[in-house]
Each structure stands twice: as C-alpha cells, then as structure tokens.
Design brief:
single chain; alpha+beta; 60s Ribosomal Protein L30, Chain: A; five-stranded mixed beta sheet; two-stranded antiparallel ribbon; 5 helices; 7 strands; 28% helix; 2-C-methyl-D-erythritol 2,4-cyclodiphosphate synthase activity; isoprene biosynthesis; lyase
C-alpha cells in the first residue's frame, strides 16, 4: 500500500432565507442558510468527499444517502467522524486538509479559527493540520449572486505505522 493518498472533494448547497448556515461545524449568523437534507455544511461535506475519494471509498452520498431518514437534519460532524473511522479502518490517518469556501456573504475570516479547531477536534488532529480559506467570487456565478455556497477540499492521508498516533507534530 502507498504511504500516502491525496483526495479532492467539492460540495455546493443552495442558500435560502430562514435556513441555518453551518460551516466547518460552526453555526454562522446570517440572513440565509443552506437548503439540505442534513445540516448542509458544505465545508464538512467537501472534506468528507476528499477523504473518501483518497481511498477510493466512493462519496458521501453513497455512505449517507439524502433519501434516508437516518440522515435527516444530521449534524455533519457526525458524518465526518464516521468518515474518519472508515479511513482509519483502511489504516490511514489525516496528514492535512486544505479547504476553500466560496461565498459572497457572509464574511468568514473571523469564524475560520473556530472552524479549524472544531474540525481538528472531530478528526483528533492538530489545528495546524487544517487550513480553511474563504473567497468571494467577485459577485460572479451562483455564489456571487448569493444563490448558493460551495467548498473545495484537498487532503493528504498518511498510512499509519504501528507506533503512530492521531496527533501530528
């Protein structure tokens, strides 16, 4: 088996008034939120897909179908925890994750440290292993028109050795 694997994930959700906006496991106060079967956390969904894809474990919809009542309004941190278990069962652990959120509004820079801490907690890794960035699309596309929000994630998974721990230095 290869000592490391790289994965890429992407997710998008429509935005609507009256919905909650969860990003990176953190509730963001905004006049719009995501329309979704689960809590609609695009950041966590993209991260899950990147982790699953790195090990050829299909995608988040395969493991947690949006037509299943079991996942209705589920906290995406629970899904991420289950994905972590799946990659650990294959003998891998997260090396690092690099994630970009595309949204015209709200401004996210003040929330990013909390998101990084929350994800590190769920993944049992150092916060330094999680990088989150936010960008606008200069009012272009569905993100720029505030019709939706998207996230892109890239991960490096490392093969665990007999003596490795979950925390990375």
């Amino acid at each position: 088996m290869m000592p490391f694997r790289i994965g890429y994930g992407y997710d998008v959700h429509r935005l609507a008034t009256g919905e909650s906006l969860w990003l990176g496991g953190v509730l963001i106060q905004h006049d719009k939120g995501t329309v979704a079967h689960s809590d609609g956390d695009v950041l966590i969904h993209a991260l899950c897909d990147a982790m699953l894809g790195a090990l050829k474990l299909r995608d988040i919809g395969f493991h947690f179908p949006d037509h299943s009542a079991d996942f209705k309004n589920i906290d995406s941190k629970i899904l991420l925890s289950k994905v972590k278990e799946l990659i650990e069962a294959k003998g891998y652990t997260l090396g690092n994750a690099d994630i970009t959120i595309a949204a015209q509004k709200p401004k996210l820079k003040d929330h990013i440290p909390f998101m990084e801490e929350k994800l590190a907690e769920v993944l049992q890794s150092d916060a330094d292993a999680i990088s989150i960035k936010a960008t606008t699309t200069e009012e272009l596309g569905f993100e720029g028109r505030e019709e939706g929000i998207s996230a892109h994630a890239v991960v490096l998974l490392m093969k665990r050795t007999c003596c490795s721990t979950h925390k990375h230095e």
